[in-house]
Amino acid sequence: VQLQASGGGLVQTGGSLRLSCAASGRTSSRYGLGWFRRVPDISREFVAAISWGGDATSYGDSVKGRFTISRDNAKNTVYLQMNNLKPDDTAVYYCAARGGTTGPFEYWGQGTQVTVSS
Question: pLDDT tens for residues 63-72?
Fold first, then answer.
């Protein structure tokens, strides 16, 4: 599975962005999808995940209530709606896929930079 993320950019504190990640390749398989982020010199942080059917979602504590993950299987795309952005949300965001609802993420896309100015 190949993953292509897009939608990053520069936004002011309190603003919103929507990230997209398009999957290609073995998209007939039922993959769980997720988003992670990384700040330089800091380990990767889990942001959100969603099951194949979209009925199960989970979020990192720092984004709960502000970010929403969703997916459109007809378009093989996962989205991350980010509202009320804070400077601490500044990071490179990565999308990832795994073969089920739990377990490690096996496939990773390139990152997209999100910068939140104060």
Answer: 999 999 999 9
Run of H or E residues at 107: strand 107-108
Better-predicted residue by pLDDT, 63 or 43? 63
- Output the CA–CA distances (angstroms, integers) from residue 68 to 18, 27, 42, in the order listed: 9, 22, 23
Distances (CA, A) of 70 to 12, 43, 111: 23, 25, 18
Asked whether the beta carbons of 72 and 50 are under 8 A apart, the reply is no
The pLDDT of residue 102? 82
Q: Distance (Å, rounded) from C-alpha 100 to C-alpha 103?
A: 7
**Using an 8 Å Cβ cutoff, are 17 and 112 in contact?**
no
Residue 95 or 41, more confident: 95
The Cα 59–Cα 21 span in angstroms is 17
Cα–Cα distance for residue pair 75/38, rounded to 1 Å: 26
Q: Are 35 and 92 in contact (CB under 8 A)?
A: no
Q: Which helix (H) or strand (E) holds 15?
A: none
